[in-house]
Specification:
Number of domains: 2
CATH class of the largest domain: Alpha Beta
Bound molecules: flavin-adenine dinucleotide
Number of helices: 8
Oligomer: single chain
Strand order of the largest sheet: 5-2-1-9-20
Shape: globular
CATH topology of the largest domain: FAD/NAD(P)-binding domain
CATH superfamily of the largest domain: FAD/NAD(P)-binding domain
Radius of gyration: 21 Å
Low-confidence stretches: none
Distance between the termini: 18 Å
Helix content: 25-40%
Length: about 400
Protein backbone atom coordinates (compact mmCIF):
# COMPACT_ATOMS: atom_id res chain seq x y z
CA UNK A 1 0.00 0.00 0.00
CA UNK A 2 1.48 3.38 -0.85
CA UNK A 3 0.71 6.72 0.72
CA UNK A 4 -1.81 9.09 -0.83
CA UNK A 5 0.94 11.07 -2.56
CA UNK A 6 3.36 8.31 -3.59
CA UNK A 7 5.40 5.74 -1.67
CA UNK A 8 4.48 4.86 1.90
CA UNK A 9 6.33 7.41 4.00
CA UNK A 10 7.61 6.52 7.44
CA UNK A 11 8.91 9.34 9.58
CA UNK A 12 11.06 8.32 12.55
CA UNK A 13 11.69 10.97 15.19
CA UNK A 14 15.02 10.51 17.00
CA UNK A 15 18.33 8.86 16.14
CA UNK A 16 18.94 6.72 19.22
CA UNK A 17 18.75 2.97 19.79
CA UNK A 18 14.99 2.74 19.14
CA UNK A 19 15.07 4.88 15.99
CA UNK A 20 18.00 3.07 14.34
CA UNK A 21 16.73 -0.40 15.28
CA UNK A 22 13.34 0.52 13.78
CA UNK A 23 14.95 1.78 10.56
CA UNK A 24 16.90 -1.49 10.22
CA UNK A 25 13.80 -3.58 10.96
CA UNK A 26 11.72 -1.63 8.45
CA UNK A 27 14.29 -2.23 5.75
CA UNK A 28 14.34 -5.91 6.72
CA UNK A 29 10.55 -6.33 6.51
CA UNK A 30 9.55 -3.80 3.88
CA UNK A 31 12.70 -3.26 1.79
CA UNK A 32 12.09 -0.29 -0.49
CA UNK A 33 8.31 -0.49 -0.19
CA UNK A 34 8.67 2.25 2.38
CA UNK A 35 10.47 5.56 2.24
CA UNK A 36 12.07 6.32 5.59
CA UNK A 37 12.99 9.74 6.95
CA UNK A 38 14.73 10.45 10.21
CA UNK A 39 14.10 13.67 12.11
CA UNK A 40 16.80 14.31 14.71
CA UNK A 41 19.26 17.10 15.54
CA UNK A 42 22.24 14.73 15.98
CA UNK A 43 25.17 14.31 13.62
CA UNK A 44 26.23 11.06 15.28
CA UNK A 45 24.89 8.16 17.27
CA UNK A 46 26.81 8.03 20.55
CA UNK A 47 26.97 4.61 22.17
CA UNK A 48 25.95 5.68 25.68
CA UNK A 49 26.25 2.29 27.45
CA UNK A 50 30.05 2.52 27.20
CA UNK A 51 30.23 6.03 28.74
CA UNK A 52 30.59 4.63 32.27
CA UNK A 53 34.09 3.39 31.50
CA UNK A 54 35.49 6.77 30.37
CA UNK A 55 36.13 8.31 33.82
CA UNK A 56 38.09 5.16 34.73
CA UNK A 57 40.35 5.42 31.69
CA UNK A 58 38.62 2.77 29.57
CA UNK A 59 38.18 3.40 25.84
CA UNK A 60 35.95 6.28 24.83
CA UNK A 61 32.35 5.44 23.97
CA UNK A 62 32.22 5.31 20.22
CA UNK A 63 30.26 7.84 18.18
CA UNK A 64 28.94 6.64 14.82
CA UNK A 65 28.40 9.44 12.26
CA UNK A 66 24.81 9.37 11.06
CA UNK A 67 25.52 10.35 7.44
CA UNK A 68 26.98 6.94 6.43
CA UNK A 69 24.27 5.14 8.43
CA UNK A 70 21.64 7.13 6.54
CA UNK A 71 23.32 6.18 3.27
CA UNK A 72 23.48 2.47 4.21
CA UNK A 73 19.82 2.38 5.18
CA UNK A 74 18.60 4.79 2.51
CA UNK A 75 17.19 7.25 5.05
CA UNK A 76 16.58 10.90 4.48
CA UNK A 77 17.91 12.69 7.57
CA UNK A 78 16.29 16.02 8.50
CA UNK A 79 18.70 17.65 10.94
CA UNK A 80 16.02 19.36 12.97
CA UNK A 81 13.73 18.76 15.96
CA UNK A 82 10.09 17.85 16.31
CA UNK A 83 7.92 20.67 17.60
CA UNK A 84 4.37 19.37 17.33
CA UNK A 85 2.27 16.80 15.50
CA UNK A 86 -0.90 17.40 13.49
CA UNK A 87 -2.40 13.90 13.45
CA UNK A 88 -5.38 14.98 11.30
CA UNK A 89 -3.13 16.28 8.52
CA UNK A 90 -0.53 13.51 9.18
CA UNK A 91 2.21 16.09 9.52
CA UNK A 92 5.05 16.75 11.91
CA UNK A 93 6.02 20.38 12.39
CA UNK A 94 9.67 21.01 13.12
CA UNK A 95 11.55 23.70 15.01
CA UNK A 96 12.94 25.02 11.72
CA UNK A 97 9.37 25.46 10.44
CA UNK A 98 9.13 22.44 8.13
CA UNK A 99 5.93 20.40 7.83
CA UNK A 100 6.87 16.77 7.22
CA UNK A 101 4.13 14.43 6.04
CA UNK A 102 3.90 10.82 7.08
CA UNK A 103 1.86 7.71 6.43
CA UNK A 104 3.25 6.24 9.65
CA UNK A 105 5.04 8.14 12.39
CA UNK A 106 7.39 6.53 14.91
CA UNK A 107 8.14 8.67 17.94
CA UNK A 108 11.49 7.51 19.31
CA UNK A 109 12.95 10.69 20.73
CA UNK A 110 13.67 9.44 24.21
CA UNK A 111 12.99 10.84 27.65
CA UNK A 112 13.61 14.24 29.22
CA UNK A 113 15.88 14.34 32.23
CA UNK A 114 15.39 16.17 35.49
CA UNK A 115 17.91 16.51 38.31
CA UNK A 116 15.88 15.65 41.39
CA UNK A 117 18.59 15.82 44.09
CA UNK A 118 20.19 19.28 44.12
CA UNK A 119 22.84 18.31 46.70
CA UNK A 120 23.98 15.21 44.82
CA UNK A 121 26.07 15.05 41.66
CA UNK A 122 23.46 14.25 38.98
CA UNK A 123 25.13 12.68 35.99
CA UNK A 124 24.55 14.10 32.54
CA UNK A 125 25.22 11.45 29.88
CA UNK A 126 26.78 14.13 27.65
CA UNK A 127 29.31 15.18 30.33
CA UNK A 128 29.88 12.10 32.47
CA UNK A 129 33.62 11.86 31.94
CA UNK A 130 34.11 15.52 32.82
CA UNK A 131 31.78 15.22 35.85
CA UNK A 132 33.46 12.10 37.28
CA UNK A 133 37.08 12.60 36.31
CA UNK A 134 38.05 14.47 39.49
CA UNK A 135 36.06 12.11 41.68
CA UNK A 136 37.93 9.09 40.31
CA UNK A 137 41.25 10.88 40.88
CA UNK A 138 40.24 11.62 44.48
CA UNK A 139 39.25 7.98 44.91
CA UNK A 140 42.63 6.84 43.63
CA UNK A 141 44.41 9.22 46.00
CA UNK A 142 42.31 7.99 48.97
CA UNK A 143 40.88 11.47 49.48
CA UNK A 144 37.32 10.19 49.69
CA UNK A 145 36.29 8.08 52.66
CA UNK A 146 32.68 7.49 51.64
CA UNK A 147 30.99 7.49 48.25
CA UNK A 148 27.30 6.75 47.65
CA UNK A 149 25.43 5.99 44.45
CA UNK A 150 21.71 6.65 44.69
CA UNK A 151 19.17 5.19 42.24
CA UNK A 152 16.33 7.72 41.91
CA UNK A 153 12.85 6.68 42.98
CA UNK A 154 11.18 7.52 39.67
CA UNK A 155 11.74 6.10 36.20
CA UNK A 156 15.47 6.07 35.63
CA UNK A 157 18.38 4.40 33.91
CA UNK A 158 19.45 1.98 36.67
CA UNK A 159 22.34 0.13 34.99
CA UNK A 160 24.97 2.89 34.87
CA UNK A 161 24.78 3.57 38.61
CA UNK A 162 25.39 -0.09 39.43
CA UNK A 163 28.29 -0.14 36.99
CA UNK A 164 29.80 3.05 38.40
CA UNK A 165 29.52 1.69 41.95
CA UNK A 166 31.23 -1.57 40.91
CA UNK A 167 33.99 0.24 39.00
CA UNK A 168 34.58 2.70 41.85
CA UNK A 169 34.91 -0.12 44.39
CA UNK A 170 37.34 -1.93 42.09
CA UNK A 171 39.45 1.20 41.58
CA UNK A 172 39.49 1.89 45.34
CA UNK A 173 40.69 -1.69 45.96
CA UNK A 174 43.36 -1.44 43.25
CA UNK A 175 44.64 1.80 44.76
CA UNK A 176 44.63 0.51 48.38
CA UNK A 177 42.03 3.15 49.14
CA UNK A 178 39.66 2.51 52.04
CA UNK A 179 36.73 4.37 50.51
CA UNK A 180 33.40 2.87 51.57
CA UNK A 181 31.11 2.55 48.55
CA UNK A 182 27.34 2.38 49.17
CA UNK A 183 24.56 1.78 46.66
CA UNK A 184 21.06 2.88 47.60
CA UNK A 185 18.10 1.77 45.54
CA UNK A 186 14.29 1.83 45.78
CA UNK A 187 14.20 -1.67 44.25
CA UNK A 188 13.42 -4.54 46.62
CA UNK A 189 16.75 -6.12 45.69
CA UNK A 190 19.55 -5.15 43.27
CA UNK A 191 18.15 -4.88 39.71
CA UNK A 192 15.05 -6.74 40.94
CA UNK A 193 13.28 -6.16 37.61
CA UNK A 194 15.44 -8.94 36.12
CA UNK A 195 14.02 -11.50 38.57
CA UNK A 196 15.47 -13.45 41.50
CA UNK A 197 18.34 -15.39 39.93
CA UNK A 198 19.71 -12.30 38.17
CA UNK A 199 19.19 -10.09 41.21
CA UNK A 200 20.91 -12.57 43.51
CA UNK A 201 23.92 -12.65 41.19
CA UNK A 202 24.10 -8.85 41.08
CA UNK A 203 23.78 -8.75 44.88
CA UNK A 204 26.66 -11.23 45.19
CA UNK A 205 28.81 -9.16 42.83
CA UNK A 206 28.18 -6.04 44.91
CA UNK A 207 29.02 -7.93 48.11
CA UNK A 208 32.20 -9.37 46.58
CA UNK A 209 33.31 -5.84 45.75
CA UNK A 210 32.65 -4.78 49.35
CA UNK A 211 29.78 -2.48 48.35
CA UNK A 212 27.16 -1.86 51.01
CA UNK A 213 23.73 -2.13 49.35
CA UNK A 214 20.61 -0.59 50.85
CA UNK A 215 17.45 -1.64 49.00
CA UNK A 216 13.73 -0.72 49.29
CA UNK A 217 14.89 2.80 50.13
CA UNK A 218 13.64 6.02 48.60
CA UNK A 219 16.37 8.58 49.07
CA UNK A 220 16.49 12.36 49.20
CA UNK A 221 19.48 14.62 49.68
CA UNK A 222 18.31 17.82 51.34
CA UNK A 223 21.72 18.80 52.70
CA UNK A 224 25.14 18.11 51.24
CA UNK A 225 26.61 14.85 52.48
CA UNK A 226 23.44 13.45 54.04
CA UNK A 227 21.07 11.00 52.40
CA UNK A 228 17.71 10.61 54.08
CA UNK A 229 16.04 7.27 53.48
CA UNK A 230 12.30 6.64 53.42
CA UNK A 231 10.29 5.00 54.80
CA UNK A 232 12.04 5.71 58.11
CA UNK A 233 15.30 3.99 57.33
CA UNK A 234 17.37 6.77 58.83
CA UNK A 235 20.25 8.64 57.26
CA UNK A 236 23.46 7.75 55.51
CA UNK A 237 26.40 10.15 55.42
CA UNK A 238 28.65 10.19 52.38
CA UNK A 239 31.31 12.66 51.33
CA UNK A 240 30.30 12.30 47.69
CA UNK A 241 26.82 11.40 46.47
CA UNK A 242 26.22 10.48 42.84
CA UNK A 243 22.87 9.91 41.15
CA UNK A 244 21.25 9.80 37.71
CA UNK A 245 18.45 12.15 36.64
CA UNK A 246 14.81 11.19 36.91
CA UNK A 247 13.17 10.65 33.55
CA UNK A 248 10.04 12.23 32.13
CA UNK A 249 8.22 11.80 28.86
CA UNK A 250 8.73 14.61 26.33
CA UNK A 251 4.96 15.41 26.21
CA UNK A 252 4.62 15.84 22.44
CA UNK A 253 2.12 18.57 21.55
CA UNK A 254 -0.64 17.01 19.46
CA UNK A 255 -0.16 13.52 20.91
CA UNK A 256 -2.22 12.40 23.91
CA UNK A 257 0.13 11.25 26.67
CA UNK A 258 -1.95 8.95 28.77
CA UNK A 259 1.06 7.44 30.47
CA UNK A 260 2.35 8.95 33.69
CA UNK A 261 4.59 12.05 33.57
CA UNK A 262 4.40 12.65 29.84
CA UNK A 263 5.35 9.13 28.71
CA UNK A 264 3.33 7.65 25.85
CA UNK A 265 1.04 4.65 26.30
CA UNK A 266 1.31 2.13 23.49
CA UNK A 267 -0.27 -1.25 22.79
CA UNK A 268 1.89 -4.36 22.38
CA UNK A 269 2.45 -3.46 18.72
CA UNK A 270 3.91 -0.09 19.62
CA UNK A 271 0.86 1.87 18.45
CA UNK A 272 0.09 4.96 20.53
CA UNK A 273 -3.26 4.24 22.17
CA UNK A 274 -6.04 5.88 20.18
CA UNK A 275 -3.94 6.80 17.11
CA UNK A 276 -3.96 4.62 13.99
CA UNK A 277 -0.75 5.85 12.35
CA UNK A 278 1.39 6.93 15.28
CA UNK A 279 3.79 4.55 17.01
CA UNK A 280 6.32 4.98 19.79
CA UNK A 281 9.35 3.04 21.00
CA UNK A 282 12.15 3.42 23.53
CA UNK A 283 12.51 5.61 26.59
CA UNK A 284 9.55 7.74 25.44
CA UNK A 285 7.19 4.84 26.19
CA UNK A 286 5.48 4.42 29.54
CA UNK A 287 7.33 1.37 30.92
CA UNK A 288 8.67 0.33 34.33
CA UNK A 289 12.30 0.28 33.25
CA UNK A 290 14.30 2.13 30.61
CA UNK A 291 16.99 0.15 28.85
CA UNK A 292 18.38 0.15 25.36
CA UNK A 293 17.52 -3.55 25.02
CA UNK A 294 13.86 -2.88 25.73
CA UNK A 295 13.93 0.16 23.42
CA UNK A 296 15.15 -2.09 20.59
CA UNK A 297 12.44 -4.70 21.22
CA UNK A 298 9.78 -2.01 21.20
CA UNK A 299 11.25 -0.68 17.96
CA UNK A 300 11.14 -4.17 16.39
CA UNK A 301 7.49 -4.57 17.38
CA UNK A 302 6.56 -1.13 16.02
CA UNK A 303 8.47 -1.75 12.77
CA UNK A 304 6.50 -4.94 12.12
CA UNK A 305 3.21 -3.09 12.64
CA UNK A 306 4.29 -0.24 10.38
CA UNK A 307 5.37 -2.71 7.68
CA UNK A 308 1.92 -4.35 7.90
CA UNK A 309 0.28 -0.93 7.65
CA UNK A 310 2.36 -0.31 4.53
CA UNK A 311 0.89 -3.45 2.95
CA UNK A 312 3.71 -5.91 3.61
CA UNK A 313 2.25 -9.41 4.15
CA UNK A 314 3.49 -9.82 7.72
CA UNK A 315 1.70 -10.81 10.92
CA UNK A 316 3.02 -8.47 13.60
CA UNK A 317 4.08 -10.52 16.63
CA UNK A 318 3.98 -7.78 19.20
CA UNK A 319 6.39 -7.02 22.01
CA UNK A 320 8.28 -9.99 23.48
CA UNK A 321 9.40 -8.02 26.56
CA UNK A 322 12.37 -10.10 27.59
CA UNK A 323 14.82 -7.82 29.37
CA UNK A 324 18.50 -8.25 28.63
CA UNK A 325 21.46 -6.30 29.94
CA UNK A 326 25.20 -6.62 30.23
CA UNK A 327 26.39 -5.30 33.59
CA UNK A 328 30.01 -4.17 33.27
CA UNK A 329 32.01 -4.23 36.51
CA UNK A 330 35.24 -2.84 35.05
CA UNK A 331 36.74 -6.30 34.52
CA UNK A 332 33.99 -8.43 33.02
CA UNK A 333 30.36 -8.45 31.96
CA UNK A 334 27.56 -10.14 33.85
CA UNK A 335 24.80 -10.90 31.35
CA UNK A 336 21.30 -10.59 32.80
CA UNK A 337 17.95 -11.75 31.56
CA UNK A 338 14.45 -11.43 32.97
CA UNK A 339 10.89 -10.99 31.82
CA UNK A 340 9.78 -7.35 31.80
CA UNK A 341 6.24 -8.33 32.76
CA UNK A 342 7.39 -9.51 36.17
CA UNK A 343 6.49 -13.22 35.82
CA UNK A 344 10.09 -14.40 35.81
CA UNK A 345 10.10 -18.11 36.65
CA UNK A 346 13.10 -19.74 35.03
CA UNK A 347 13.56 -16.80 32.64
CA UNK A 348 15.62 -14.94 35.24
CA UNK A 349 19.27 -15.61 34.53
CA UNK A 350 22.76 -14.26 35.13
CA UNK A 351 25.72 -15.64 33.25
CA UNK A 352 29.26 -14.71 32.34
CA UNK A 353 28.71 -15.86 28.77
CA UNK A 354 26.86 -13.59 26.34
CA UNK A 355 23.12 -14.15 25.97
CA UNK A 356 22.95 -12.60 22.50
CA UNK A 357 25.03 -13.01 19.35
CA UNK A 358 26.46 -9.51 18.85
CA UNK A 359 29.35 -8.09 20.85
CA UNK A 360 27.40 -4.87 21.46
CA UNK A 361 26.56 -4.10 25.09
CA UNK A 362 22.90 -3.50 24.29
CA UNK A 363 20.97 -6.47 22.97
CA UNK A 364 19.40 -4.99 19.85
CA UNK A 365 18.49 -7.69 17.31
CA UNK A 366 19.62 -5.74 14.23
CA UNK A 367 21.44 -2.68 15.54
CA UNK A 368 23.89 -4.85 17.53
CA UNK A 369 25.20 -6.78 14.50
CA UNK A 370 25.09 -3.60 12.41
CA UNK A 371 27.33 -1.76 14.90
CA UNK A 372 29.61 -4.81 15.00
CA UNK A 373 29.88 -4.44 11.24
CA UNK A 374 30.67 -0.72 11.48
CA UNK A 375 33.35 -1.63 14.04
CA UNK A 376 34.79 -4.01 11.45
CA UNK A 377 34.02 -7.10 13.53
CA UNK A 378 31.66 -8.73 11.04
CA UNK A 379 30.93 -8.26 7.37
CA UNK A 380 28.52 -5.41 6.65
CA UNK A 381 27.32 -6.66 3.28
CA UNK A 382 24.94 -9.44 4.37
CA UNK A 383 23.24 -7.03 6.76
CA UNK A 384 22.75 -4.35 4.17
CA UNK A 385 21.75 -6.95 1.58
CA UNK A 386 19.01 -8.30 3.86
CA UNK A 387 17.82 -4.74 4.28
CA UNK A 388 17.45 -4.13 0.54
C1 LIG B 1 25.17 6.34 30.86
C2 LIG B 1 24.12 5.39 30.38
C3 LIG B 1 24.42 4.03 30.29
C4 LIG B 1 23.44 3.13 29.85
N1 LIG B 1 23.76 1.81 29.77
C5 LIG B 1 22.86 0.94 29.27
C6 LIG B 1 23.21 -0.43 29.07
O1 LIG B 1 24.31 -0.86 29.37
N2 LIG B 1 22.29 -1.26 28.53
C7 LIG B 1 21.04 -0.82 28.18
O2 LIG B 1 20.24 -1.62 27.67
N3 LIG B 1 20.67 0.47 28.36
C8 LIG B 1 21.56 1.36 28.89
N4 LIG B 1 21.21 2.67 29.07
C9 LIG B 1 19.86 3.10 28.70
C10 LIG B 1 19.78 3.34 27.19
O3 LIG B 1 20.84 4.19 26.77
C11 LIG B 1 18.45 3.98 26.83
O4 LIG B 1 17.41 3.23 27.37
C12 LIG B 1 18.31 4.05 25.32
O5 LIG B 1 19.31 4.90 24.78
C13 LIG B 1 16.94 4.56 24.90
O6 LIG B 1 16.94 4.68 23.52
P1 LIG B 1 15.94 5.70 22.80
O7 LIG B 1 16.21 5.51 21.34
O8 LIG B 1 14.56 5.53 23.29
O9 LIG B 1 16.37 7.14 23.27
P2 LIG B 1 17.73 7.91 23.10
O10 LIG B 1 18.85 6.96 22.94
O11 LIG B 1 17.74 8.88 24.24
O12 LIG B 1 17.59 8.71 21.73
C14 LIG B 1 16.72 9.80 21.62
C15 LIG B 1 16.97 10.46 20.27
O13 LIG B 1 15.96 11.45 20.03
C16 LIG B 1 16.56 12.69 19.67
N5 LIG B 1 15.64 13.76 20.05
C17 LIG B 1 15.38 14.26 21.28
N6 LIG B 1 14.45 15.22 21.19
C18 LIG B 1 14.11 15.33 19.89
C19 LIG B 1 13.20 16.15 19.17
N7 LIG B 1 12.42 17.07 19.78
N8 LIG B 1 13.11 15.98 17.84
C20 LIG B 1 13.88 15.08 17.19
N9 LIG B 1 14.75 14.28 17.82
C21 LIG B 1 14.87 14.41 19.16
C22 LIG B 1 17.89 12.66 20.41
O14 LIG B 1 18.78 13.60 19.86
C23 LIG B 1 18.30 11.20 20.19
O15 LIG B 1 18.81 11.01 18.91
C24 LIG B 1 22.15 3.60 29.51
C25 LIG B 1 21.85 4.97 29.63
C26 LIG B 1 22.82 5.85 30.05
C27 LIG B 1 22.48 7.31 30.16
Amino acid sequence: MSGTHGPFEVLIVGAGVAALEAALALREHAGDQVQISLLAPDSEFRYRPMLVGEPFGHARARGYPLAPIARDLRLHHHVDRLRWVDTDAQQVHTEAGLALRYDALLLAHGARTHAAMPHALTLDPDRMDEQLHGLVQDLEASWIRSLAFVVPARAAWPLPLYELALMSALRAYECYSETVVTLITPEDSPLAIFGKAASDAVGQLLTDRGIKTISSAHATVHTPGTITLYPELGQVRAERIVTMPELYGPAVPGIPHRGEHGFLSVDRHGRVIGLERVFAAGDIVDSTVKTGGLAAQQADAAAESIAALAGVPIEPRGLVSMLHAALWDGEKYLYLQGRATGAHGSSSKATLTPLWPSTAKVNARLLGPYLDALDGRVDLLPLIASAS
